[in-house]
Amino acid sequence: MSGQDTRRPGHAWSRVVGVLAGVVRWIGLIAAAILVAHIVLVMADASRANPLTAEVRALAGVLELPFKSLFTLEDVKLGVLINYGIATVFWLVVSSVVVRVIRRLRTARPTDQ
C-alpha cells in the first residue's frame, strides 16, 4: 500500500460535498430547535431569571433575524409564537435549499490541472 487513495476519481470531492451538506443541514436543524425551545419556554411562562431560559432567549434573539418584530400583537405570547415560528420555518427552508445546491456540486467536480 502506497498510502494513495485508490478509489474512483472524484470520491474525495463527493465526500467533501456530502460532509458540507450535512454540516449545513445540522446548522439549520439546531437553529430551528433553539427557536422552538424559545417558543415553548415563552408559552410555558418559564422564569426569565433561569440561566437555561436566559441562554435560549439570547441564542434565539440572534437567530430570529428580522422576524422578531414582523407582527406586533397585543398578546406577547402569540407574537412570539408567530414571529419565532416564521423564523423557524425560514431556517428550515433556507438550510434545505442550501443543502440541495451544495449536493448539486457533486456532479460539478473540480478538474485536475
Give structural notes.
The protein is an all-alpha fold. The chain is 66% helix and 0% strand. It contains three helices and no strands. Helix 1 crosses helix 2 and helix 1 runs antiparallel to helix 3.
Descriptive tags:
mainly alpha, 3 helices, 113 residues
Question: Biggest sheet, in brief?
Answer: none
N-to-C span: 25 Å
Q: Report the total helices.
A: 3
Beta percentage is: under 5%
The helix-strand sequence is HHH
Structural class: mainly alpha
Q: Could you estimate the helical fraction of the residues in percent?
A: 55-70%
**Rg (CA only):** 20 Å
Q: How would the global form be characterised?
A: elongated
Count of distinct strands: 0
Average pLDDT confidence is: 87
Unreliable spans: none
Brief digest:
By secondary structure, the chain is mainly alpha-helical. It has helices at 11-43, 51-63, 76-104.
SSE arrangement:
Elements lengths: L10 H33 L7 H13 L12 H29 L9
Helix pairs in contact: 1-2, 1-3
